[in-house]
Amino acid sequence: MSGAQAGSSITTLGQYLASKSLMAGSGQTPLDALLLDVATACKRVADLVRHGELAGVLGAAGSENVQGEDQKKLDIIANDVFIDSLERSGLLAGVASEEMDAHHPIPDEAPRGDLLLAMDPLDGSSNIDVNGSTGTIFSIMRRSGAGATRDEHFLQPGDSQVCAGYCLYSSATMLVLTTGDGVDGFTLDNSIGEFVLSHPKMQIPAATSEYSINAAYQRHWFNPVARYVEECVAGKEGPRQRDFNMRWAGSMVGDVHRILCRGGVFMYPMDRKLEAAGNSGKLRLLYEANPMAMLVEQAGGAASTGTERIMALTPNALHQRVPVLMGSTEEVQLLVEYHAQA
Ligand code: AHM
Ligand code: MG
User: Are 274 and 300 in contact (CB under 8 A)?
Assistant: First the structure.
């Protein structure tokens, strides 16, 4: 049998949003409508990802993004799919993306709303060609003031986000989101073309014995992260007095999703190599760190740069990078302590 269990009761994303708005005493809000458009774009990208080579979407695009990273064909196609699905909705004031130097303004002939969307249209690009997990990450904020939208309108702290989420393209396609009232996960039922509520009220346990980091950069790490990982690796015989497990999906969406499902800590810290290249981290604040931090905090976890809470940072550029340590609270707190002691 494909799809949902015969005869069982389901809640679609549309029904979920409608019932939330009804409880809040409103009809469909612009945010509800935008989330439905985002979900449609995610389904379009999921379909391309699922067909892979057969859809002719694998391989390099032969171009670089504003950050000097090689773009894959699917990075650009996913970006175009989102712009196409969203720009004429009448809900948005602008879209910022990892794949575009400046924000994409809403065309003059289209109606304009007051919501801003920042996104990484296809995160985990290095996994595309090997059929690994990838995802879309998005952050929604409100725009204030009149006049044309400028990049500066996006430079709001993560605490101003009205919604954050990701879509995971893996063995199943899942949309996970928060509007500031917990985190709920939806699985795409391909047989009816709907995201169906499958993971209500996701919670990250405070304690964990699983960490996630690209250990190939070990020689570049600064002392706090080096110490933390060394102590995890020492296991039962070390100061932590228990064994740890390590997982690294190569896609932040895949790694953070695992943490939302069963706990753990995800680290992409600042290191000497990034510092020597003049970078303030690897992951981008506006469309990777902030939305994931909101999801993690809303699920009871914590998200820090090592010295500051990620969502308290005031961004200074659209593509600003930050160190990221997020997940189970006890482990993030320990990492913050090690940074304070260093
Ligand atoms: P991308 O947005 O270009 O795909 O880069 C972000 C990705 C994250 O998903 C992942 O955690 C990280 O980069 C992996 O980086 P690395 O290849 O250095 O391990
Ligand atoms: Mg990314």
Answer: no
> What is the second-level CATH architecture of the domain 210-341?
3-Layer(aba) Sandwich (3.40)
**CATH 3.40.190.80 region(s) of the chain?**
210-341
- In which residue ranges of the chain is CATH 3.30.540.10 found? 13-199
Residue 134, pLDDT above cutoff 50: yes
Q: Which amino acid is at 220?
A: H
Cβ(99) to ligand 1 under 6 A? Answer: no
HSE-CB for 194 with a 13 A CA cutoff? 13
Query: CATH homologous superfamily of domain 13-199?
Result: Fructose-1,6-Bisphosphatase, subunit A, domain 1 (3.30.540.10)
Going from the Cα of 311 to the center of ligand 1, the distance in angstroms, rounded, reads: 20
Write the CA distances from 54 to 190, 191, 323, integer angstroms: 18, 21, 37
Residue 201 neighbours by CB distance under 10 Å: 12
To test ligand 1's pocket by mutation, which of 268, 288, 292 has the most ligand atoms within 8 angstroms of CB?
A: 268
Tokens 């065309």 sit on residue: 107
Q: Supply 181's token pair.
A: 């009232």
Tens digit of each residue's pLDDT (9 = 90 or more) over 289-301: 999 999 999 999 9
Q: Parallel, antiparallel, or unpaired for β 194-199 and 283-284?
A: unpaired
- pTM for the full model? 0.96
Binding site membership of 65 for ligand 1 (Cβ less than 6 Å): no
Q: How remote is the CA of residue 142 from the centroid of ligand 2, in Å?
A: 22
Residue 238 CA, ligand 1 centroid: distance in Å: 30
